[in-house]
Amino acid sequence: MANRRAVLKAALVAGTGAIVAACTGGGEGTRTDGGGQAAESRPVAKLTAQPAVDATEAPVRGPVTVQVSDGSLTDVKLTNADGKPVEGSFNADRTAWTSTETLGYGKTYTYAATANGTDGKPVQLTGTFTTLNPKQQIRVTVNPADNAKVGVAMPVSVKFSDDVTNRAEIEKALTMETSQQVEGSWGWLSARQIDFRPKEYWPANTTVDVGAKLYGIDLGGGSYARADVTTKFTIGRNQVVKIHTPDHVMNVYRDGAKIKSYPCSNGLDSDVDRNTPNGTFIVMTREPHAIFDNARYGYTNVNKKWACRISNHGEYIHENQDNAAAIGRANNSHGCVNLLEADAKDYFDSALIGDPVEITGSRLGGPVNSDVMDWLVSWPAWKAKSAL
Question: Catalytic site residues (predicted)?
Answer without folding.
Answer: 318, 336
